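Here's what a typical entry looks like (Probable ATP-binding protein YheS):
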Amino acid sequence: MISLQNVSLQRGTKPLLVAAGLRVQQGQKVGLIGPNGSGKSSLFQLLQGRLHHDSGDCSVPQQWRIAHMAQEIGASDATALDFVLDGDMQLRRLERRIAAGDDDGADLAALYAQMEDIQGYAAPARAQQLLNGLGFLPAEAHRAVADFSGGWRIRLNLAQALMCPSDLLLLDEPTNHLDLDATVWLEQWLQRYQGTLLIISHDREFLDNVVNHIVSVEQQQLVSYPGNYSAFERQRAERLAQQQAVFEKQQQRIADIENFVRRFRAKASKARQAQSRLKELQRMEQIAPAHIDSPFNFSIPNAEKISNPLLSLVDADIGYGHDDGGRRVLERINLSIVPDTRIGLLGPNGAGKSTLIKTLAAHLPTLAGDRIAGEHLHIGYFAQHQLQALDLGASAALHLQRLSPRTREQAIRTYLGSFGFLGDRAFETIRHFSGGEKARLALALICWQKPNLLLLDEPTNHLDLEMRHALTLALQTFAGAVIVVSHDRHLLRNCADEFMLVDAGSLEPFTGDLADYERWLAQRQTRRQRPEATPAAAATESAGTDRRRQRQQAAARRQALQPLAQAVKRLERDMEKITRRLAALEQKLADPAIYQTDQSHNPQLRDWLKEQTQLRQELAQLEENWLASSEELEQKQAAT
């Protein structure tokens, strides 16, 4: 069992934990969450013995084997396969002793027996499976580590940590550099893991599918919640609601005491009572108000003018190397993006999702065919390597001032504050910003420019849970078009109305949901691993032809229903927008202060009441349309 008792931990002048406690039982799978900079990675270093706490007691069983995922990796001439195998240190020690040949026959036999016990002879196959699952091609197993980019080296670090036999596995943001298929594979691997798992992640669906406990860093304390992330949200909301009620009750008691003291302190007959109440006030535990609102609250303004369609690809071949005919990644792509387009791009690693996004953003020319931009097209493009384009010597405010030199400083302060850059933080150089802060700034710059088409390639990398939630809400209310590639399934589910599959050199509509896509990935992996069909297997496949034809026909029927299904989703989204606007308006109308003046001389109140009536009428019409469309969809689904 891992035990922390009254642990205080400070980095520099910043206290991270103050008299914090934590217990993690053997075999538990724990998700560690909290804002960026709250001390999650430092806690991992503490558990590894690489960092010492300032006070308290930290205990990890001495016999436990600890594996952790390194965040950086230097250039190495070792092959990817050898690098992953290096994670199993016992295997490497046995290999070195056997290769040295210094042992006599009995000792050598014992070494071979140990190799058998740890399944050492199967280790290369296990390492290759890890590489395959994390998206490496079979031939890449023999490439030098130095040949891979930074993101792929992080994947190698993850593979090495998974290769290490362990009782405690510490993973820090393992999905940051993974695409969706690798994320799904990692989930399944961790679900089978038998040891104790501590994982830092800002991917709520990943946490839901992997962990059975949540530890939240809150106000320099470690607060434990049983269950997955969704259970944590429910429990914390209930706890904060109760805390807020107690806080408000306490504040009323404090106000009563202070009022009594002010009134009667000077009267001799009441002096003793006043003194007693002062002591009560001093003894009373000061309960902090519940801060349940996210620190981020922003929207994405839309360009004033808009084209329809915004952007089209017509018989386009997409790839690299235009001058010499190019390496085609996708061929004969036809895609029309209209103002209400909401597409989530799916597809296995290397299929061409990022290449398609770059072509839409005009960062790559088409190899054949046409890219046709609307007259008023204004693209906001977030690339996977967007952070590298920031000027490290400039402040967040200066980045905005360069885009809009005439904007007042206060407007810039207010805008950046909605992205969490408060006070003087907005005017500090970003050189020492965390990855999450840089990602927030990159998104802020894109939103500032009022796009009408957002092209987002893994926008949630480095973002914490609160910022991901704020981004999801902002995308839901964004009036323009969105095309997104992301391994964050919560973002995809809530921001995409349709999915398109990039695979085998083509772009096609995907008629299922994300659960269907996970099944498609599993079937694809099975097909890749299945040996070539023998004559007997061929007969079996022939017997399955009718079933495949039936599935294809069912898919065609679902495809025919897709426009109606999308219309239902659009109506649901519109209803949600109006419901939120109506709730905000009615909250304003609930304020007694606005009724204290003569209503005939209060134009703002008249406007609000008029808008309330209009919104209620719009909502009623939308609900009627939604009901009719839903019934039609259900009838057609039943008919098929």
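Residues 566-639 form one domain.

More examples are in the samples folder.
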